[in-house]
Amino acid sequence: MPIVYDSVHLEEGQEIKDLPYDTFGIENPKGRLNLYLPATGDSWPVVIFVHGGGWSSGDKDLKIGGKKVYLNIGRFFAANGIASAVINYRLIPGVHWQTQIGDIARATRWVHENIESYGGDPDALFLAGHSAGAHLISHVALNDELLTAFNMTTGDIRGVIAVSGAAYRVEDDVTNQNGEMMSYLEKRFTVVDNSGRWVQDASVLQFVDADDPPFQIFVGGAEIPGLIRQSTLLKETLDSAGVPNTFELISGRKHARMILLMSGNGNGVGEKMIQFVQDYATDLDEQK
Fold first, then answer.
1. Which residues, 6+ apart, have CB-to-CB distance to 223 below 8 Å?
2. How does DSSP classify residue 165?
3. What are the DSSP calls for 24-68, one per residue?
C-alpha cells in the first residue's frame, strides 16, 4: 500500500502514548491507548479510533513503509481541534471475540472518565473504526446492555464513524452468495467460539433502535461486493429505525486504502469526518 496520506506534525505534549485503559494494560500493550490533543483551547470533542485487521491482527502503532498509519489519523483529528484516542485491543485467537468488544467498551469508559483532565469533553465522545474496528465500535455504540455494564449509556456516544465495516449482519444471503465472506468470518470466529451462536451474536444490526447515536458510513467502491452490501444494510437498518445517518460510496477505493482517507488524503472523507464531529458535538436532542 503506497504511503500517500497527509503527514500531520504535532508538538511535544500533544501526543501522550501507551496509557493503560484497564488494569491488564499495565503489563499488556494491547490494553493501552495513545492520546492526540489539539494545540489550543479545551473542552474538545473526542474521537476514539479502533483499527481493523480481521479481529486477529493490527496495532495502534502499526507501521507500513516506515509510517504509522493509525497514528496519523489521531494527529489529523488533533490538528483540526478534535482530541483523539487511538486504542489497542486484544486479538483472536488469544481472546474470545466478545472480549474484544469488552476491550473497546473498557477503553471508551476510560476516555469518558479521564479525558476531561486532558482538556477533552467527556460529554462529546465519538467512536470511529475501520473494517473489524467498525464492527466492534458498532457493537459498543448500539448495545444498551453492554454500555450499562460499563456504567455508560447510548447517550454518552455522540456519533459513530463506520468505515468499510464487516459482519453487521453475518447471515445475509446477498452478502454470502459466493461464500467468500462467510468463509472468511468462520475462520476468525469459530477458532474461539464453538457455541454455534456466533453468527447471530456477532451481528450488530439486532441492536439498532431509535435512540441510537447518528452514524457516518463510508465504504470503497472497489471493495468486495460483500463489504459494500454490509454497509448498505447498516444504512437501511438505521433508516428504518429513524436513526440519523449518512452513507457514501467512495469511487475507486479498495479496502486498505480507505484507511488513508481517514487522515484527510483525497475524496474529502477526512474533512467530512471533521464536519460530522463538529455537527454532533452539541446536544443530540437538538440534532434530532
1. 164, 253, 254, 255, 258
2. -
3. GGGT-GGGEEEEE--SS-SSEEEEEEE--STTT---TT-EETTEE
Answer with the residue of higher pLDDT: 82 or 287. Answer: 82
Helix axes 69-79, 269-280, angle to 10 degrees: 50
Nearest CA-CA partner of 22 in 106, 105, 87: 106
C-alpha cell at 12: 511535544
pLDDT at position 68 is 83
- Name the pTM for this structure: 0.94
Enter the C-alpha cell of residue 13. Answer: 505534549
Residue appearing with cell numbers 472497489? 222
Q: Which helix (H) or strand (E) holds 269?
A: helix 269-280
Are the C-beta atoms of residues 144 and 207 closer than 8 Å to each other? yes
14 contacts 275 by C-beta, under 8 angstroms:
no
The third-level CATH classification (topology) of the domain covering 15-287 is Rossmann fold (3.40.50)
**C-alpha span between 211 and 224 (Å, rounded):** 31
Q: Print burial letters for 173-188: b (CB count within 10 Å at least 16), e (below 16).
A: eebbeeeebbeebeeb
Biggest alpha carbon–alpha carbon distance for the chain: 52
| 182-239 confidence digits (pLDDT tens) | 999 999 999 999 988 999 999 999 999 999 999 999 999 999 999 999 999 999 999 9
Cα gap 261→257, rounded to integer Å: 7
Name the band, by pLDDT with cuts 50, 70 and 90, for residue 175: confident
Spatial CA neighbour of 106 closest among 25, 211, 18, 207: 25
**CB count, 10 Å around CB of 189?**
21
Extract the C-alpha cell encoding 72.
496519523
HSE-CB of 229 using CA atoms within 13 angstroms? 15
